[in-house]
Known about the structure:
By secondary structure, chain A is mainly α. Chain A is 88% helix and 0% strand. Chain A contains five helices and no strands.
Amino acid sequence: MGMLADMFAGHHKECDDLFAAAEAAAQDGAWDKAAPLWERYAAAMERHLSTEEGVLFPAFEDASGMRGGPTQVMRMEHTQMRGLLQQAGQAVAARDADGFGGACETLNILMQQHNMKEENILYPMCDRAVGSNAALVQQLREKLGK
Amino acid sequence: MIGALSFEQAPPLWVPLRFFLTAPWFLCAAGLLLAVDGAHVVAGGRWGPGAVAAVHLVTAGYMLQVMAGALLQFMPVAAGANVWRPRLTGGVAHAGFTAGGAALVAGFLWVGVPALQAATVLMGGAGAFYVVVLARGLAASPAIGPTLRGLRFAVFGLAVTVALGVALASVFGFGVALPLAELVPVHAAWGLAGWALTLLAAVAWLVVPMFQLTPPYPPRFAFAFPLAVCGVVLGWTAAVFLRTPAVAIAVAAAGTLVVGAFGGATLRLQGQRKRRVTDATLECWRAGMAALCAAAVLFPIPLAVTDAALRGRLEWLAGVLVLGAFVAVIQGMLHKIVPFLVWLHLRSVMAVPPTMQKVLPDARARPQSRLLLASILVLALAAAWPPLAHLGGVLLAVAAAWGGALLVGAARFHHRLAQSPSASPDDTGRSAR
Ligand SMILES: [Fe+2]
Ligand SMILES: [Fe+2]
């Protein structure tokens, strides 16, 4: 795997772990634990999404000249993910187990199929286009907090 | 090549949905056939017209419909492979597979030569067209990974299956002289392993970790698996045509190891899942993988049994377990895919669409899939006492129709909200669990 694919796929996994922990806490009815776990997860996701949108995608678009294609679809899916993150966050606050479970299930599938497209297709393309740019790689690493 | 990559999230909802809405009625028909004639079908062995018809209702009817529809959805997302004009491709394949599947079964049951001729042309034509469209998309894909590789093997397997099926149907339909006794087991191996199992595995590499957050399959295993399956199927083909029973048994035993490794690996990964939530989909996967492992153990045994009656019973058992494994997993996948697609498409008409659980609550999906699993178990037990096949058939028909009704409900849920997105989801007469 390329450097960027490695770094971003690794961060997907970190986010997955936080997601699973928050979901499990809510399933146990441990809302006192679930709420801060969810907050940590939502913050990690926001960091991930905004690093892609603000740094990785623009660098890829500049290098490849592809503006309307893959990155456009990824940005659209980010918007959808933010909607569900918010929906689930409200359910955590209201201790609404069904609402939270429903939002989590939908978010998980949306997020996983999104990640899979990035990991299998977009990140390898990014690696080919801008993976050798050491300054960019360093900047991305810092923004992801890795 | 990269320029051709649209990265589209999804074709129109109707493209895969028409396949999903049709498929359960083929499964239901298989159940009805067994309900009426079950004990007779078990006793008649795999060459009896009832058994051949029932097998094709499940495979060329149910399984092919769902797999063909799901691939049109799955290819762009999972493999970055664009499907040529998805609406047209979906329409042609759906029409051909539906009419061809019905004609095929009618031909078997009532030994109708014109029906078999029609089936040859329809299944052969739609199959060839569909294979070419998929192969073109897969060839142009810039993606990497074992799923894309698995899909390429699977589509090759489908091409061989369709070609052999056309050859076989031509024997009956057009009186072409071909070696039936050899072609039948080879056609079955390519269809079930070269196509269906290879496709199931390629999908599993992605969805098993994705739904439950399990560790990934070992990359070398995922890489080698389609090759190993292809090797076993080629070995089987050679052993059958060379008429070397000892080699056939050895190849079947190799099949036991390869298939068992897949089933076992999947069960192990699901045991290590990070998400603690369980649902109908997970139950279906686990039951399906257990059935697949049990079937794998049975592969070589009937080949070594000389008593015809006992061999027939063992073949029935192995057949029910193999087909039951696919039917179970497919049902589990439908319970996830369809609500997700409804959510995805509603997302374009409303900001906060109702979540998947509102489209198809687990509390509705679970009893249906449990009844389906029970019907497979009863059909398997009919190997010991054939009259049970009648009961198994009734349960299968009811579970399949129930599954079909749940899908119609999901489609109507989408339709209502897409028409008037301002209506609250609770106005639709459904509530969350
Ligand atoms: Fe992303
Ligand atoms: Fe990402």
